[in-house]
Amino acid sequence: MASHLSRRKFLGAASTAATTAIGAVRVAEKPALLGGKPVRSEPFPAWPKFNSVEEKALLEVLRSGKWFRGYGQQVNRFEQAYARLTGARHCLATANGTSALFICLNALGVAPGDEVIVPPYTFVATINVVLLMHAIPVFVDTDPETFQIDARKIEAAITPRTTAIIPVHIGGSAADLDTVLAVARKHKLPVIEDACQAHLGEWRGRKLGTLGDTGCFSFQASKNLNSGEGGAILTDSDELIERCYAFHNNGRGRRASSYDFSYHSSGHNLRMTEFQASLLMAQMTRLEEQARTRDQNGAYLTSLLREIPGIRPARVYEGCTRNAYHLYMFRYLKEHFAGLPRAKFLKALRAEGIPASDGYRPLNREPFLKQTLSSRAFRAVMPPERLSQWQERNQCPENDRLCEEAVWFTQNMLLGTRRDMEQIAEAIRKIQSYAAELAKA
Predict the structure, then answer these.
(1) Domain assignment of residue 434, given as a range
(2) pLDDT digit string (tens) for 248-272?
(3) What's the structural domain count of the chain?
(4) pLDDT, tens only, 221-242
(5) Greater model confidence, 9 or 236
(6) ∠75-54-44 over CA atoms, to 5°?
């Protein structure tokens, strides 16, 4: 009878074999910082990936002379294609991911002095858009095992002033949407999914960005779907999409003539260009294949790293049926590395040819927040006593600890080979073997 291994058992067997080989062959070699040979001399795959398909798409727009979405069809085509890809009823292309979030807050009626629940472990744009509304970001602590907002703590942060929740799918893995959505329904609060890092990620088989009232995406240069800059909003609401469209188009709704200067609302020019849309259509042709490669390499790398004492790969919630792997994230526990500080660990890792980052800082502790909230622009909605209360509420000790331990690899590294993943583990094991010496170096 033929023998069939499950994917989990296969990865386990493969990682055990790889770990044994690494331990036997490499552990005695000195780290590069101590005069040894680096594990890698070749770079990881470059980003972005492009070829003549992108060149042809951009030249077609250039030669058409129709560079603005009001004259051409590329933005409309992209919106239709991205809605089909994600299963959303509507898609609106925007100038960038930040503008997508800003548009949604406006469309949902967030007003000065309102409170919006956000995580402290995120890119600053999530917070900046709340401040642009003269609203107040209220931070809910992080689940350090997953790097995501701790959804179990959201309800305790809700007050009569709360008007929206923004869960962020950090690194392309999903926040705990079952809990987030249940709390939101109970309190009748809209949910804006910040899926800027989560292209093709899924929660229980549904694409991230399609489960909340709106979902926002970024196509900035580092993202898994890339047009240099760009963004998108997904929603199933006919009413919300029209509000979003008008706001992103200087308050002008959809119209048959460019000579129609009637206005539906206040707004801004936050439109996507035809160039960006054509580039995205070309990039989408390889999106699924790249996502599969990241998924396979991410799972394999986790099977290797979880065998190393003191390395804690980010846990994925049970409901996350697909991790987009915009980032590969893990916690570095220095007590398993002879007390080697994270900064020295990262320096040693880079010397081995493995680029790595220490990730985000605690946003709730950024000095600019207090400066902004105590500024003249916020004086009417944030008197000194409320500012003091806000500071007391926004303590996030778990996030503080995570920010001292986090390590990131970027998504392009997961587009490499299985051997590339083994070399990452090999480098970390080598550093661990010489951690005491590295600490003194």
Answers:
(1) 7-48+287-359+402-440
(2) 999 887 765 566 677 778 899 999 9
(3) 2
(4) 999 999 999 999 999 999 999 9
(5) 236
(6) 120
Reply yes or no on whether the pLDDT at 20 is more than 90.
no
CATH of the domain at 308: 3.90.1150.10
Statement to judge: residues 32 and 79 lie in one domain: no
CATH code where residue 249 lies: 3.40.640.10
Compute the half-sphere exposure of residue 73: CA atoms within 13 Å on the CB side of its CA: 4
Residue 334 and residue 202 share a domain: no
21 with 67, same domain: the answer is no
> Which residues are bridge partners to 283 per DSSP?
none
DSSP code string of 27-51: TTSPPGGGT---S--SPPPPSS---
- The residue type of 332 is Y
Residue 398 near residue 141, CB atoms below 8 Å = yes
- Is the model's pLDDT at 351 over the cut of 90? yes
**Two tokens, residue 279:** 């580039």
Indicate if 209 and 321 belong to the same structural domain: no
Evaluate whether residue 379 is within a structural domain.
no
For the stretch 319-344, pLDDT in tens is: 999 999 999 999 999 999 999 999 99
Q: Does any domain span residue 2?
A: no
Which residues face 249 on adjacent strands? 269
For residue 375, being part of any structural domain is answered with: no
> Model pTM?
0.92
- Tally the C-alpha atoms within 13 A of residue 427's C-alpha that lie toward its C-beta: 26
Q: Specify the DSSP class assigned to residue 273.
A: P
Residue 120 Cα to chain centre, angstroms: 13
Spatial separation of the C-alpha atoms in residues 90 and 83, rounded to whole Å: 6
Maximum Cα interatomic distance, the chain, rounded to a whole number of Å: 77
CA nearest neighbour of 191 among 83, 245, 262, 118: 118
